[in-house]
Sequence to fold (925 residues):
Amino acid sequence: MKSSRLGAWVALAIGAIYFLVPLIGTFEFSLRMRRDQYSFDAYAIVFADPRFQATLGYSVMMAILTIIVGIALVVPTAYWIELRMPKARPLVEFITLLPLVIPAIVIVFGYLHLYNSSSFLPFTANERSTDVLLVCSYVTLSLPYMYRSVDTGLRAVDVRTLTEAAESLGAGWTTILFKVIFPNVRSGILSGAFLTFAVVVGEFTMASLLDRPAFGPYLQLVGANRAYEPSALAIIAFIVTWASMGLIQIFARAPKGATAAADRTT
Amino acid sequence: MPFLEIESLQKSFGAQTVVHHFEMTIDQGEFITFLGPSGCGKTTILRMIAGFEIPSAGIIRIDGKDVTRFRPNQRNVGMVFQSYALFPNLTVAGNIGFALKVAKRSTAEIKSRVEEMLHLIKLPHLADRYPRQLSGGQQQRVALARALAGRPKVLLLDEPLSALDAKIRVSLRSEIRALQRQLGITSIFVTHDQEEALSISDRIVVLSEGRTAQIGTPFEIYNFPNNRFVASFIGTLSLLPALVVDARNGRLSVDGQDVVTNRPLNGAAVGDAVTVALRPEAITLQPQSENRNNLDAVVEEVGFLGSVIRIRARLNDAVLSLDMFNNPNQPPPELGARVALSFSQDDLLVLDAAVAAA
Amino acid sequence: MALSAQTGVAVAPGAPSSILDRISWSWLGLAPFMIFAILFLIAPTAILMIGAFQDSAGHFTLVNIQNLFQPSVLDAYWISIEISAASSLLGAAIGFLLAWAVVKGALPGWIRPTVLTFSGVASNFAGVPLAFAFLATLGRVGLVTILLRTFTGFDLYSTGFNILSFWGLTLTYLYFQIPLMVLILAPALDGLRTEWREACDSLGGTAWHYWRDIALPVLWPSVFGAALLLFANAFGAVATAYALTGSSLDIVPIVLYAQIRGDVLHDQNLGYALALGMIIITGVSNAGYIWLRGRAERGRA
Ligand SMILES: Nc1ncnc2c1ncn2[C@@H]1O[C@H](COP(=O)(O)OP(=O)(O)OP(=O)(O)O)[C@@H](O)[C@H]1O
Ligand SMILES: [Mg+2]
Fold:
């Protein structure tokens, strides 16, 4: 009993070292910009860089659009399956898992081939339509966790009974969707949304290959050309990720019983 | 010589002592039940016997050997869990044969023992099923067979029936009891269902807040409860305030009416206020001959339970329950009717005078 | 499908709706999702798969597949597989121990939620910033490299270690692989009931029996499945490797990246075959993961 407890502490300590040292190292490195003393110069330079602001703003924008489009696509679909088409569940679940199977780089390669400027749907012909393609690509990437978190939420609240109850009270389908279904899967949607945000903001492959001025390619560019700023950027990115995950924890905790029960049954 | 001896067993979790000075000796082949409300320490005592908890103080001897410090796997004590706890990756046969396999018995021996056990639990055709393919009752029977296959010295069962539905609970409990008799294995059965305890035990240990409230046969526990806790925990009991009129002859005054008890007064003196108790089945509505008590009361509620009719009757400041058998030729009394409650002088229990007087 | 749904709309009012109409109506509800999936997931992948079997004129050929077996491409696959295997096996082993410590280690109550939250963050802290973090820590002038040299006189780089190398990349990948393993395995370990251990004990079994006969057989689908997921996860990763090593380490995703940017293979259709190879490898390991996860869940039920 005692020895296994000790082993657990040792494992945890080693894990903590492995995971904290790179963060400390990065932070320390980001402070080294001045020759003989620690300073936040690297951060000052980063924040003052107009391209930092522009690319981060662009990526945040893309992330928000991704979340909106993703919710609009996934929630009605998951709802419909739960309510009317349970037999389509395996098919849709399979499709939502595909982005885990097909690497992002392959998907974007396909886009470039399929939607080039001379194709039937020339998404890449101009910047606006490429932005649309980028958002759609991010929605695709986020399908696995977006669908899963919404579906878990829906299964936990017994959608069919809720819908029938609302219908019997005279509610129309928009009322049902917005007043009954959305509120009940809110925490699921929000968890999915923050995860999407964390992933999309720093995403590199899609943005880089679609040639859009996003934060990920900017990071890469800075990394290739500068010494200390990349560390500052890594710390900033880490904080953004933490913030997103922290928000997931807060929202996922809300209806604790419901999600716990749902996890158990899946 | 007793087979299982437990001497002043004690267990504390941090500052909280959950088992106080538990003492008991159990004979070979006895079927003992631990009965008590939730949290009274039944599981904790059982787990100390099995070796999953180390006692804070006390000694446990099995067959004359002090096993207090033995690891669970050195004690040869079979355990049946409330949640079955069958190994999900092994078949029924694999589960039942586990103890023998661990003990490195020959394949042939394991096979024949497993078959024997499967016959004992009446599931001979399920050897190759996995636990998830069995019903709850079947799983628990397999768990029983698994615990018994290695011929343990003691069998411990922690609420083995509480996850099952009512019907299976009743049939499985008599099956367990029959099997236990057949094998002659010393067993301890934990439950908080008093009917279960009364129906299958050789002796019952009633526990309250980590202490023994009473140890006795079901007959003793039911008819001669030592104290108020046991009396009220087992069966239904009507409690009435009373005054001692004549301590030597057991004369009491209940609700201003005279009654006599042949039970001991537990040291109460004339003028003391005591609590007396009556079982519902001890009371009848036919006013009867001498040597019986009669109390006048008003019918307040009549509940038809099928073979039995339970009536609540009110005295001035107390309420009594009584049971009468259903009889198509004799309808129950009307609400509000005045009735005479008749009961034997032997059935009037006098409970802890001191507490009632305080 | 959409067409028959349209006719269903026209007929539906008044007329008793036939089963056919109702079916098409139900499918219509899935149309937006299906169209989206086809446009942005299935068609782009399918066109690459088709392209892998075509020559530049669009005729069927197996030459591209054959060309995958030229040494330079094979090497890229091989090193990718090695890195993915190393990072997934190590990640699975270490993640298993860590998850065990957190779930079954009887540690104080706050440890578990803290570690799981951190794992959520770290498993998503991949890509370019992760590469920066490891450069800043284990690069030539990184904190750990310097501290080691200053205080122990040990020169990490004299051992042949290089953060831009195979082991450097593996070590970096572990930063998201281990937490992912912890996240996947924690529920599986929760499913391991204490009563099994106790039942095993009371039947005379030792820790060794418990592990060999119960815990590992119950856990292996989860562990092995998770390792496969980790493998696919590493195999498809581009950003970390690209930011860390530029194009000094020829792993498949990097070669493909370079191919897309500038046709370094001088053969469009070979590029498609390269992508097809990636899909097959990640597909097989993911299919293995899903199959094993199903097995593990059924076993637990
Ligand atoms: N590991 C433990 N740590 C701290 N307290 C414990 C532990 N195990 C049991 N207890 C406490 O000991 C007391 C007795 O618990 P026990 O499980 O023996 O009760 P029980 O009689 O079996 O109840 P039930 O009928 O609900 O199963 C309870 O108050 C419980 O909270
Ligand atoms: Mg208990």
User: Anything to note?
Assistant: The two ends of chain B are 43 Å apart (CA to CA). Residues 41 and 210 of chain B are 5 Å apart (CA to CA). Chain B touches chain C through 28 residues (CB under 8 Å).
